[in-house]
Specification:
It is a single chain. This protein is mostly helical. Among the domains are: 91 residues; 56 residues. The chain is built from seven helices and no strands. It is elongated. The chain starts with a helix and ends in a 6-residue tail after the last helix.
């Protein structure tokens, strides 16, 4: 009788341990599933933000298409993880419609718009951050095989050209401002940095060639101004020394 009771207790303990282990496993799976769902939702939110920020850049239906497709894949992953969750089905339908619209725009894209660097520093910073995030996303999608090599190269070069233009125009603007205030040393540093950035850039476009010519001309003007200033300073110094010698060797008055 005692042996039976002990056996039942052992069986009960084993049963409790097994049930507890199963429960813990289910909870772990549910926790991991929630983390995966949250990750996919974060991808969708990031894409929505990037698409909004694309409004500050020249129109690019290809980028909008890539971001919408990325969001659609994330929404489908969420549906696979939580098929009964509310709102995912309608979100997938909405993303499908947005993707089709972006594909139509990409297929009928007209002449590319010219990118104009804004004057507002805060807006420039926001655009730079947007470009950097999109380039990282673009590279990630290309590495997964979702974006083909030709599209990746085309869009990445466009973004790179805009990023370069922002950097160069900002340096030239600061250099011109320093030059107008006759801070020629500072102006020369800004222009030289811009020229070095252009020289080290791997893609030699018409913009790069034009800017190299313009900045070289501006540096030549600064060099001429510095030579003129140095000559004037030297003349003033010589005149001052001459006056000091005249005073030193002039005939002494008798008292």
């Amino acid at each position: 009788m005692v042996a039976i009771i002990i056996g039942l207790l052992v069986a009960l303990i084993v049963f409790v341990v097994i049930v507890s282990a199963i429960q813990q496993h289910k909870e772990k799976q549910e926790s991991e599933k929630k983390i995966k769902v949250a990750k996919q939702k974060a991808i969708i939110d990031e894409n929505d933000e990037l698409i909004i920020n694309l409004g500050n850049l020249p129109s690019s239906p290809n980028l909008v298409k890539i971001l919408n497709k990325r969001s659609l894949n994330a929404a489908k992953a969420m549906q696979a993880l939580m098929p009964k969750a509310k709102g995912i089905k309608s979100r997938i339908q909405d993303l499908n419609a947005r993707l089709e619209a972006a594909e139509d725009l990409a297929a009928n894209q007209s002449k590319e718009e010219v990118f104009i660097v804004p004057d507002n520093e805060q807006q420039i910073l926001s655009i730079l951050q947007c470009i950097k995030k999109i380039r990282v996303t673009l590279k990630s999608e290309q590495s997964k095989g979702i974006v083909d090599a030709q599209t990746f190269t085309q869009e990445d070069h466009r973004l790179d050209a805009m990023q370069l233009k922002i950097n160069i125009e900002s340096l030239v603007k600061r250099g011109s401002q320093a030059q107008s205030k006759e801070m020629l040393g500072s102006a020369r540093q800004y222009f030289e940095k811009a020229l070095q950035t252009l020289a080290s850039h791997p893609i030699k476009t018409e913009y790069v060639a034009t800017k190299q010519s313009e900045i070289t001309s501006q540096l030549a003007d600064i060099s001429d101004s510095l030579k003129s200033t140095n000559a004037q300073d030297a003349a003033k110094k010589a005149k001052s020394e001459e006056n000091e010698l005249d005073v030193l060797f002039q005939p002494k008055q008798k008292w």
